[in-house]
């Protein structure tokens, strides 16, 4: 008996089309959010330093999971909504991590409120904009590190994101979560539909077992859907994570400025930071809007018809054009020399003249960051990722030979088995039609805790396809601890448990699964068949 019932398929299609509609609505409003953030400016509504104002004082006393000092943020045991889970790979670079930790420590030390456990990590994205999550983690893209000129610029970027955490903006605004949820929903619907489609109910005497036998088409659809999800998340994170309400951006600008100046950095670097950031956001807004409009109808049609062959072709095209659009825009952005400053820059100049006139004379210290960049370990990482990004650009343009040459050049002893490097080789081998060698790259990844959810999804799918259900279950449990989320792979978990003969555990997992709206119907269906 096939689990892929008409009702189940209809539900997947309906949720997918809802996601398409929601994303379109979001993108239509993104221009206003990025280029003309709503709300009145607060820069001239007070005297003295912003950090000393009463409206900031109420955030200085706190007792929550971020209170206190030290300690590595652990997502294990937490129940983090899927839309808040990071989508990028983490870059393992101890020397670089130590340098960024030093900057962050200097900045947070200027906060005169309750200690807050703010931390920072490097992620593989080419984008320019760092972003902070609700759990106190700031993600710094490699693209930022490759393109800032001084530690002062880095400090101002980090201080801005730390200020979002200190001012508890994630508690007061759901823009980030809502928009990331819209993007994730389509890929999740495709994955769930294909997993359910390829799962049979097998009866052996009185025993019922869910047997997962993925078809080539189903596996291909899942891989493409997760890669597509990664592409969209990579180019959208820096738009949606920074397109917050105008008041919140103003608050983060002002408090971040106070923290950075108190830590000894120069106000002069602020203009450069905002020029780069705002220009990048503006380019992404137009790029994503045009991109989405072009593909919405084709993807909707394929889902509506339940035609997975057509869906696969459209996702193929979506992926190729998405890479070309996003990576091409990034390249154009970094090649552009003269960019118009945002109105936020003008507001901050006025604030600096009013409150920090003596500090304006401070020179930007370019030497500290340049020395760090030139150190062997940091240089190797940044050069390696720069070449890998160039390889991705070549791959998106259809130049597989150049992509392979650059990808091989990007592999150093330090980085060759990073998740992003192996994912790049995986994608190149897939483009060459060499699926066996593509999969071999996944075996070389040394730190799966640094991998993105989409790459973990591919790993789990591969293990299940090979009937390695013990390994698949271990990978799922590791991912649950890494991401602090049990919903992303819960359907696969129940199938793996059932195939290992643990139907009671599978039923318990499916009962948990029913609380997630986007999976409720499919989990109920599987549960009935086991029970």
From TrEMBL:
<feature type="signal peptide">
    <location>
        <begin position="1"/>
        <end position="19"/>
    </location>
</feature>
<dbReference type="Pfam" id="PF01435">
    <property type="entry name" value="Peptidase_M48"/>
</dbReference>
<keyword id="KW-0645">Protease</keyword>
<keyword id="KW-0482">Metalloprotease</keyword>
<keyword id="KW-0862">Zinc</keyword>
<dbReference type="InterPro" id="IPR001915">
    <property type="entry name" value="Peptidase_M48"/>
</dbReference>
<dbReference type="InterPro" id="IPR011990">
    <property type="entry name" value="TPR-like_helical_dom_sf"/>
</dbReference>
<protein>
    <recommendedName>
        <fullName>Peptidase M48 domain-containing protein</fullName>
    </recommendedName>
</protein>
<keyword id="KW-0479">Metal-binding</keyword>
<feature type="domain" description="Peptidase M48">
    <location>
        <begin position="96"/>
        <end position="274"/>
    </location>
</feature>
<keyword id="KW-0378">Hydrolase</keyword>
<dbReference type="GO" id="GO:0046872">
    <property type="term" value="F:metal ion binding"/>
</dbReference>
<dbReference type="GO" id="GO:0051603">
    <property type="term" value="P:proteolysis involved in protein catabolic process"/>
</dbReference>
<dbReference type="GO" id="GO:0016020">
    <property type="term" value="C:membrane"/>
</dbReference>
<dbReference type="GO" id="GO:0004222">
    <property type="term" value="F:metalloendopeptidase activity"/>
</dbReference>
<dbReference type="InterPro" id="IPR051156">
    <property type="entry name" value="Mito/Outer_Membr_Metalloprot"/>
</dbReference>
<keyword id="KW-0732">Signal</keyword>
């Amino acid at each position: 008996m096939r689990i892929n019932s008409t009702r189940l398929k209809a539900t997947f299609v309906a949720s997918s089309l809802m996601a398409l509609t929601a994303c379109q609505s979001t993108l239509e409003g993104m221009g206003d959010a990025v280029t003309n953030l709503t709300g009145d400016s607060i820069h001239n509504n007070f005297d003295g330093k912003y950090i000393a104002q009463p409206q900031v004082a109420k955030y200085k006393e706190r007792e929550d999971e971020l209170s206190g000092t030290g300690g590595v943020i652990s997502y294990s045991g937490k129940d983090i909504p899927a839309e808040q889970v990071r989508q990028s790979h983490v870059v393992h670079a101890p020397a670089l991590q130590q340098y960024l930790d030093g900057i962050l420590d200097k900045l947070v030390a200027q906060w005169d409120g309750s200690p807050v456990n703010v931390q920072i990590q490097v992620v593989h994205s080419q984008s320019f904009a760092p972003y902070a999550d609700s759990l106190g983690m700031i993600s710094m893209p490699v693209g930022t590190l490759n393109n800032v000129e001084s530690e002062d610029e880095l400090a101002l970027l980090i201080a801005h994101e730390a200020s979002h955490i200190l001012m508890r903006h994630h508690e007061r605004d759901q823009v980030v979560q809502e928009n990331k949820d819209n993007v994730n929903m389509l890929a999740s619907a495709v994955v769930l539909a294909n997993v359910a489609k390829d799962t049979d109910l097998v009866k052996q005497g009185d025993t019922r077992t869910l047997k997962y036998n993925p078809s080539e088409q189903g596996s291909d659809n899942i891989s493409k859907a997760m890669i597509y999800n990664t592409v969209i998340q990579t180019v959208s994170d820096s738009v949606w994570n920074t397109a917050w309400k105008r008041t919140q951006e103003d608050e983060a600008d002002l408090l971040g400025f106070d923290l950075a100046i108190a830590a000894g950095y120069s106000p002069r670097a602020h203009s450069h930071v905002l020029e780069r950031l705002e220009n990048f956001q503006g380019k992404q807004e137009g790029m994503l809007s045009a991109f989405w409009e072009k593909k919405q109808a084709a993807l909707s049609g394929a889902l509506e018809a339940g035609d997975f062959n057509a869906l696969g072709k459209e996702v193929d095209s979506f992926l190729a054009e998405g890479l070309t659009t996003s990576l091409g825009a990034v390249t154009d952005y970094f090649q552009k020399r003269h960019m118009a400053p945002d109105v936020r820059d003008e507001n901050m100049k006025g604030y600096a003249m009013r409150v920090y006139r003596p500090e304006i004379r401070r020179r930007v210290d370019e030497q500290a960051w340049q020395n760090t960049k030139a150190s062997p370990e940091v240089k190797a990482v940044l050069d390696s990722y720069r070449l890998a990004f160039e390889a991705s650009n070549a791959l998106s343009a259809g130049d597989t030979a150049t992509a392979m040459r650059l990808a091989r050049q990007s592999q150093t002893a330090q980085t060759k088995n990073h998740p992003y490097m192996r994912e790049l080789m995986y994608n190149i081998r897939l483009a060459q039609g060499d699926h066996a060698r593509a999969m071999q790259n996944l075996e070389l990844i040394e730190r799966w805790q640094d991998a993105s959810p989409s790459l973990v999804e591919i790993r789990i799918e591969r293990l299940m396809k090979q009937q390695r259900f013990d390994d698949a279950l271990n990978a799922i449990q590791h991912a649950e601890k890494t991401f602090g989320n049990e919903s992303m792979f819960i359907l696969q978990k129940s199938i793996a448990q059932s195939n290992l003969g643990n139907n009671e555990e599978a039923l318990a997992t499916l009962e948990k699964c029913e609380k997630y709206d986007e999976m409720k119907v499919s989990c109920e269906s599987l549960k009935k068949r086991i029970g």
